[in-house]
Structures are given as structure tokens and as C-alpha cells.
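Reviewers of the previous submission asked for a worked example of the structure-prediction workflow described in the proposal, so we include one complete record here. The input consisted solely of the amino acid sequence. No template or homolog information was supplied to the procedure at any stage.
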Amino acid sequence: MAKLGEIARYVRSKNAGPFWVTIDIFCPDPESFQRISEAPELTARAIAALYGISENGIHRFRVPSLHVLKISFPRPTAQGSPGDADSHAGQLFVPLLSVEIDQKS
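From that input alone, the workflow returned the following C-alpha cells.
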């Protein structure tokens, strides 16, 4: 097992408009991309559990040519609204870094 933050080259999160977040997971090679994009620990259900959101709103996009997995979901609060602690969604990727990815993924 290895943590996502150890496998991925770079992980970032950002706004995808005022109501959505996109997390980009950049992998160093095709093998790492395949491992991450097929990992049970990164399914919509697993992401929903990690972030405490409904899995119905989670979208995953594989970009094999760039070795990138994109995960988009509704922001917990609208950008700039009361209770929004991260207006740019720049820190929402952090919980993913410590997710353990199975070697068999």
C-alpha cells in the first residue's frame, strides 16, 4: 500500500465555477495512472465517504494522454458564501493525499 500523495506527481484542487470543485491527480507514468484511475479507494462511493457528500454528484474523468484523473463534485458551500472557508477550493485536495492505494489497483 502507498498513499496517493506518494504515487501521484502532483495533486491540486480548484473551483470549477462557484458551485463545483475539480481535483486533478497528475501521475508520473501510464502505470501509475492506471493504478490510480482503477483504484477502489478513489471510486465515487469512496470520494463521497471521504468528503461527506452524495456519490450521485461526483464525476470522474480519465485523461490517459496526460496521465490525469479529474474528480469533480459540488462544493460543500457556494464560493464566497457564509461558511466558505476556502474561496478558491485550493485546499480541498488535502484529504486525498493520505488515501492508501492498494498495490493491486
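The beta strands are 2-3, 10-15, 20-26, 59-63, 68-74, 100-101. We consider this example representative of the routine output the project will generate in years two and three.
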